[in-house]
Task: inverse folding
């Protein structure tokens, strides 16, 4: 699966409220994750960095 996700991408955009958001798209264009709204672009980019850093090690919890 690692190779298949090499072409995945994060898209950064501004929503209708003027907040920055990101979405993670699979190589086939399907949105597989979407963020909360951020007040600055830098905060949004920091959110992307956090996902990149912690997601490979994240556990799945049923709540």
Result:
């Amino acid at each position: 699966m690692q190779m298949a996700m090499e072409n995945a991408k994060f898209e950064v955009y501004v929503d209708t409220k003027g907040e920055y958001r990101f979405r993670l798209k699979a190589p086939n264009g399907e949105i597989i994750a979407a963020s909360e709204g951020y007040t600055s672009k830098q905060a949004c980019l920091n959110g992307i960095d956090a996902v990149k850093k912690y997601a490979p090690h994240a556990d799945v919890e049923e709540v």
